[in-house]
Q: What sequence folds into this?
């Protein structure tokens, strides 16, 4: 057993080939908020704890009961004096507290490695160096840049492993920039990732033949607001693109006032795998051609399925049954035109409330790239609309507006069916009403020393005193407090109350 220095609790020590080699000392603290820990804990019956309340209320019970692993941000519980803080706020406070107790020190890990330009292709960027028997390696003069690739017929490497450029003898022979004697060009080229490390700067001024880009245009366009790439680029491309950008900033190519960071935000999307979870490849014959999917099911079906198939950042296997499901959903949406759509229908408070909750969720989910849960919310709304004999035109229009990013063609067609002349995409995103999205009753968690001992259904914004009175009278909570002295009470409105005894 080991002692948890933060809580003085005993924890079992497990020895396994589980800890990632590059992670810290080779020992990790396992909890219910890491999928690898969660899987191992379930398999071997290791006691795990959760300490985050997700913002999605439908997940709270599943996360707390360890039915589902939640890895996102949230509000802390089971965390003593840090209960009620968001994880973003809590992290620095916890590190500071551990430092003060001399239990830990903060540390920054760097992952930059040497980059070997080993893979040789004809179309890589030429390296601007020549070799002279007298002067050795010499850089090409600035006036002779950029070096242009020669036109060649054979793109294959040589039998002795040299670059394809080695066979372009006339191009290889050149003059030494230093002594003007005979010299040979470097025939190795940079890999295709080299150019991708700074191309976003060239986009700012693509026709400039005097410099990489004008400082004025770089100031106007840079830094990149949002850079998204494949998961396979998360480490290498992110590190090297920042490395090269910082170098260009150091030497003054990038205006100093822009700062040394190329992006304001960087995200990665997961890979779509073939059916059965195998990576798509021509040799396996499992590549999905989107043109064929569009031809059979329609472009909107493909869009909705790709948005709905799973979390944006995770690798997800293609499933044709899921494509059929997305098409069925869109067919149901189209069939809503058979409803009686009226200008002024009787007020339907429940449907109106659900619509405004959906507007809020879809808008927030799009911003945070949670497209799958946005589509799920749209499906829930469609379920409710289908139950109605008639529907307000305003409600239907708002629904089509939030559907339009996912199924643009269908939304546009149905928009025109409603008699609208202007394109749906020239209209504003609907605004939700805060008064319509709040549930009148909230489930509030009752903790004792950070451990969940019950829940209370209370009216939204019930005061701390009223919540405390109800909690102390609750039959599930009472036994835990009998004969105990409450030293402190932590209250987070509409979320939790924690009694410290």
A:
């Amino acid at each position: 057993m080991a002692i948890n220095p933060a809580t003085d609790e005993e924890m079992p020590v497990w020895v396994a080939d589980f800890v990632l080699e590059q992670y810290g000392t080779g020992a990790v603290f396992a909890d219910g908020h890491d999928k690898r820990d969660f899987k191992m804990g379930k398999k071997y019956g290791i006691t795990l704890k959760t300490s985050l309340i997700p913002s999605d209320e439908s997940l709270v019970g599943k996360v707390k009961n360890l039915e589902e692993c939640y890895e996102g941000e949230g509000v802390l519980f089971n965390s003593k004096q840090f209960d009620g803080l968001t994880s973003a706020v809590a992290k620095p406070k916890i590190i500071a507290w551990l430092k003060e107790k001399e239990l830990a020190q903060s540390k920054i890990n760097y992952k930059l490695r040497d980059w070997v330009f080993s893979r040789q292709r004809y179309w890589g960027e030429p390296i601007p160096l020549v070799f002279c028997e007298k002067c050795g390696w010499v850089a090409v003069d600035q006036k002779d840049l950029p070096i242009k690739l020669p036109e060649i017929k054979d793109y294959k490497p040589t039998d002795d492993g040299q670059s394809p450029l080695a066979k372009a003898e006339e191009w290889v022979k050149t003059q030494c920039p230093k002594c003007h004697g005979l010299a040979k060009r470097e025939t190795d080229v940079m890999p295709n990732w080299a150019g991708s490390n700074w191309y976003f700067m060239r986009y700012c001024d693509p026709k400039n033949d005097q410099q990489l880009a004008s400082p004025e245009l770089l100031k106007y366009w840079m830094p990149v607001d949002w850079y998204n790439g494949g998961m396979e680029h998360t480490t290498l491309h992110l590190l090297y693109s920042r490395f090269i950008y910082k170098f260009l900033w150091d030497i003054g190519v990038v205006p100093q006032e822009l700062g040394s960071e190329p992006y304001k935000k960087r995200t990665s999307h997961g890979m779509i795998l073939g059916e059965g979870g195998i990576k798509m490849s021509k040799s396996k014959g499992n590549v999905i051609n989107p043109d064929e999917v569009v031809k059979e099911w329609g472009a909107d079906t493909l869009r909705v399925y790709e948005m709905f198939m799973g979390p944006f950042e995770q690798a997800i296997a293609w499933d044709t049954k899921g494509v059929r499901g997305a098409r069925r959903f869109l067919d149901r949406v189209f069939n809503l035109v058979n409803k009686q759509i009226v200008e002024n229908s009787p007020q339907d408070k429940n449907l109106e409330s659900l619509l405004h909750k959906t507007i809020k969720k879809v808008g927030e989910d799009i911003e945070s790239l949670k497209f799958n849960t946005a589509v799920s919310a749209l499906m829930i709304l469609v379920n409710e609309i289908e139950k109605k004999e008639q529907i307000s035109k305003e409600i239907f229009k708002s629904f089509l507006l939030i559907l339009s990013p996912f199924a643009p063609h269908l939304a546009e067609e149905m928009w025109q069916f409603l008699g609208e002349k202007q394109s749906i995409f020239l209209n504003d995103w609907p605004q939700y009403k805060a008064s319509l999205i709040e549930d009148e009753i909230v489930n509030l968690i009752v903790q004792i020393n950070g451990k969940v001992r019950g829940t209370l259904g209370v009216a939204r914004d019930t005061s701390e005193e009223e919540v405390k009175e109800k909690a102390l009278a609750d039959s599930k909570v009472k036994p835990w407090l009998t004969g105990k002295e409450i030293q402190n009470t932590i209250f987070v409105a509409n979320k939790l109350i924690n009694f410290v005894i």
The chain has five domains: 2-100, 129-190, 193-269, 271-438, 440-500. The chain has a mean pLDDT of 88. The CA atoms of residues 43 and 380 lie 34 Å apart.
